[in-house]
Amino acid sequence: MIERRLIKNIDFGLIAVVIVIFFIGVIIITSATNVIDLSKDTTFKESIGEIIDIGLKRQPKIQIIAFIIGVIAVLATLTINYNSFGNAYKPLYVISIILLLMVYIPGLGVVRGGARSWINLGPLDFQTSEVAKLGFILSLAKYLEMKYEKLETIKDLIGPMLFVLPFVILLLKQTDLGTALVFIVITFGMLFVAGVNIKLVLYGGLIGISSLPLVYNFLKPHQQQRIDAFLNPSDPTLPGNYHVAQSKTAIGSGMIYGKGLFKGTFHRGDFLPVQETDFIYAVLGEELGLIGCTIILLLYFLFLYKMVKISKDAKDIYGQLVVTGITFMFAFQIIENIGMTVGIMPVTGITLPFLSYGGSSLITSMIALGLVLNVSMRKKKIRF
Q1: How far apart are CA 193 and CA 119, in angstroms?
Q2: Which of 14, 91, 271, 346 has the smallest C-beta neighbourhood within 10 Å, fewest atoms?
Q3: Which residue ranges traverse the bilayer (predicted)?
């Protein structure tokens, strides 16, 4: 059971923001999967009725079920003091690596979108790297807590770099470059809060940028093609550029007010790839226009701002580092997903948190939310 005095400290505003984003997501997913029949002229109220009667038989239903499971996971997470996860950081670290290795088990691991990041659980596929991200954050936070403000030299950074290295190697081997980048961003964000010497971060960034040509040679052909396409956006012969061009055109066609819910033409004509997941922002832009896009951006800004505040108010370094890792995880996913739909970031398989379709992604995001709320309700000052 959760103590009543702790419940008072939960950031219900953060919960409200997530619920609003999720609700918008269900509607856009319903539209993106072309469930609503537009052969007849329907009002908004009638369309909502069709979502309930028809839409819940497909992806939206799975999304809602995943959300309900996520809510249960959040409640379960809140009953455990987050420091208990820190005390078990070594087992969590090992389990996270095992999760990434499970995709190589014959008959269990499957390939989706060119990446071997999934396991087949019968009625659904589960992306193990989603859960591994949380295990990594919880374990790295404890490791950095023990190294807090002791990261002054390059030698001091060897430990954290070795900590993340197995995850990056395994994900690159699975050809999941997008998720590998998420782990790297999480690590740098947590190092910053752990008191790392800023000069080391700058030097590391310069070394990383200068080594990109070398890293490029070790990437898989389809990964190289995505980078080539990003660097040459005007070349329609490169894979991915056509999709990005269609995405930008769809968003632009929505203008200020959009074409209206369930009335987008680009996704209904199958001009947008994976429109209910990777390019869902383009569907939203076409149907809800600049106003809809701005509302979503403001909601995400509020979402991230509240987590930054929770991190600052955490009662200990471990809690601060956990929330920091989760904040950077969400921030990178939001920036990367929206950025690729408008052509300012390379195309990857990263989804938009709480908005894109995906059971494993949504459940993991909900668990991450539960961890943030866990730290929030056990903050420095408890109101009685």
Answers
A1: 34
A2: 91
A3: 12-36, 64-85, 91-111, 154-171, 177-193, 279-305, 317-335, 355-375
